[in-house]
Structure formats: C-alpha cells, structure tokens
Amino acid sequence: MLTPARTVIRREAGLWAMERALQRRGFRHVAGADEAGRGACAGPLVAAAAILPEGKRGEIDELADSKLLTALARERVYDQVVKRALAWSVVIIPPAEVDQRGLHVCNLSAMRRALALLTTRPEYVLTDGFPVDGLGAPGLAVWKGDRVAACVAAASVLAKVTRDRMMVELDGRFPDYGFAEHKGYITDEHSAALTRHGPCVEHRFSYVNVATASGRVNRPPRARRPAVADTSEALTLWPATEGTVGVASGEPSRPATPVGEDEAMEGEER
Asked: What angle separates helix 150-173 from helix 71-84, to the nearest 10 degrees?
C-alpha cells in the first residue's frame, strides 16, 4: 500500500500555510486553541478556540500572535475574528480553581473545553505548545503555534483580549495592584504592591511569590485564600449572542495541588 506523500510546511510560507495544507488533505474545519495568563500570578486563566473560514474569507488583516500586536491592533483583530470565524469560544478559569487543580491541568482542561464548545465541529485541531488529548479529532501541538497557524493566532487574540478586559475591570475593584497596567504578570510594580498590601482574592495562592506575601506559605493553597472570588460580574462583559463563553471548568474538583508543584508554578519560570 502506498503511503501518502509527506507534507512539508516552511515557516516562511506564511500564517495560513498550515491550515491550507490540512484543507488540501480534506480537513476543511481546522480549529486552533491557545491560552492567556499562564504566567500571571493574578487573574483568570483564559483559553480560546477558533475555526476560520477557508480561502480569502478567513484572511484577517493584522492577524498575528497576540503578544506581537499593540493593544489597539488586538482589539481590531478581535472584532474581525468574532465577525468572520465559523465558530469561536472562550473559557475562563478563575484563580481559585487554578490553585485547587493545578495550572497545567487547568490549562489543558480549558483548551479542551473551548474546543468542545465550538458550534462547528473541528475536523483537525492545532494547539499552541501542549498536546491536548480527548478531542474527538486528530490534532497536533505546534511550537509557537500562534506565530505559524492562523487559527491558533486567532485563538490567542480572543484569549488575550478577553483576559485583558477582565484585568482592567479587576483594576477598578482592586486599585492597589495596578492590574490594568501589568495584567497580573510579575513586574517590579506588582511585586512591590504585593509586599505592601498583601494578595487579594484574585491572586493565585499556589504561586510562591503570592504565598510568601500572604504569610501562609506553609499552608495548602486553598487555606491561604482570604475568601472565594466572585466571578459573576465577569459574565456581563461577554454577550451570549456571539460565540460561546464558559466560566470555570464544570468538572469535578480534584485534590489540592501538592506543595512541590506549587513551587514550580512561580511565574512559570521553568
């Protein structure tokens, strides 16, 4: 039996080359998934998925890895992705769940849920960096996928813009930390605010710097929290008429993350 010829895609071929190659192989609906906020020590983890139309209808001006775009450019691309995508979805995992289940578990679960929520069923899935099982479709983890696959770049913009908007809102509720500026990532200003004020309920107490600032570093993450964060207001930011938005994972809780894994979470410096 003859083996199909191997498809070689070069990075310089452009952002749409990978999807076009898959579509030529018969996979019409190629979904991309990505997350935002993995390295932050405050705020939610947000995952998104998107399927762009075939051909010129799926080509979006300025589309690129969300981290390479200015804030204004991301907003423009976000509007175009929402307008043009065959399907898109966003899943929001609050900090308390990251503490309870562990960052990596939440990351994979959120991308899996975002893909499952797509109203158009993916025939092939591209994920950024991490392989995700249980998708019901063939898939491929692509290193720096948001820079080489349009659907992953679209998902990265959806996740980044959603999370940035939430962090701006949280800045109004917790003005001592500067969330609108650093979006919950570990900067000198954020670290100084943590030392001065201690963490709030929107911080991730499974991160060593937050646990240290809480004065409860020897206690499990859930025992470090002063209260449970209220995520109900987040729903008002995202109209239910466009795409799909999920809050938290909706999956059974798991035992608290072991202390050894807590220490590895610190700012994702590993």
From this structure: 120
CA distances from 31 to 109, 228, 250 (A): 16, 34, 22
Structure tokens at 234: 């987040």
Tallying the residues shown for the chain, one arrives at 270
* Under 8 Å between Cβ of 92 and 202: no
Give the whole-angstrom CA distance, residue 163 versus residue 42: 11
Residue 89 and residue 118 in contact, taking contact as beta carbons nearer than 8 Å: yes
Task: Report how far residue 107's alpha carbon sits from residue 35's, in angstroms, rounded to the nearest whole number.
Answer: 7
pLDDT of residue 216: 78
Residue identified by tokens 């008429």 is: 241
Q: Which domains does the chain have, with CATH numbers?
A: 13-162+231-247 (3.30.420.10)
Q: How confident is the model at residue 219, as a pLDDT? A: 74
Stated pTM of the model: 0.81
Give the torsion through C-alpha atoms of 34, 37, 43, 49, to 10 deg.
Answer: -10
Q: Which residues contact 82 (CB under 8 A, 6 or more apart)?
A: 88, 158, 242, 243
Q: pLDDT below 70 — which residues of the chain?
A: 1-13, 221-223, 226-270
Contacts of 244 (CB under 8 A, 6+ apart): 88, 89, 90, 117, 118, 119
Instruction: Provide the 3-class DSSP secondary structure of residue 47.
Output: strand
Backbone angles phi, psi at 37, to 5 degrees: 100, 10
What integer pLDDT is reported at residue 146 of this predicted model?
Answer: 80
Count of C-beta atoms within a 10 Å radius of residue 66: 26
